Automatic annotation (TrEMBL):
One of its GO terms (cellular component) is nucleus. This is Fork-head domain-containing protein. Residues 29-122 form the Fork-head domain. It is found in: Nucleus. Transmembrane segments: none annotated. The lineage of its organism: Eukaryota, Metazoa, Spiralia, Gnathifera, Rotifera. InterPro entries: FH_FOXQ2-like, Fork_head_dom, FOX_domain-containing, TF_fork_head_CS_2, WH-like_DNA-bd_sf, WH_DNA-bd_sf. It comes from Adineta ricciae.
Length: 162
């Protein structure tokens, strides 16, 4: 049988398929949500905290699609998700004073480690200090972050019509 007639040759060489898959990964938008991308980036660090610039770098390294974009709007989406989602907590200021570290809220940490990045309807609550996960993270000293503060509560307005 001629090599050109074989089904193996017709399908293509393994290297060709691999290269086209790599190019497709670089050119197609990831299916993961921004919350998942951010969480995976933070979880990749040894102490579960990362500067914003490091989160950008991790995403560009792992998902080359973002490095090919002309617009930097995706960075706005990252900042928006960090601020909006209670599963992310702003930590202490960086050593050089430019920016803050971002971490994962203790109530979301276990789910993120398991790979569960679904949104929760209930508001996150910090676990008590006897949680061994929190004790192993000295940078999470203030675990009593309160989302009951008036700034976090939805305000209701009473409109009176004449």
């Amino acid at each position: 049988m001629d090599l050109h007639e074989s089904s193996y040759y017709a399908v293509g060489l393994p290297n060709e398929n691999f290269c086209s898959r790599q190019n497709m990964k670089a050119s197609s938008k990831p299916q993961e949500s921004y919350v998942e991308l951010i969480a995976r980036a933070i979880l990749s660090s040894s102490n579960y905290q990362m500067l914003l610039i490091d989160i950008y770098e991790w995403i560009i390294t792992e998902y080359p699609y973002f490095s090919t974009l002309q617009s930097k709007a995706w960075r706005n989406s990252i900042r928006h998700n960090l601020s909006l989602n209670e599963c992310f907590v702003r930590q202490q200021k960086s050593e050089n004073g430019r920016g803050y570290y971002w971490g994962i809220h203790p109530a979301a940490l276990d789910a993120f480690i398991r790979g569960d990045f679904r949104r929760r309807q209930a508001r996150l609550r910090a676990k008590r200090a006897n949680n061994p996960t929190i004790q192993s993270m000295p940078w999470m000293i203030n675990t009593e972050l309160s989302f009951d503060h008036p700034i976090h509560q939805t305000q209701t307005y009473n409109y009176s019509y004449c």
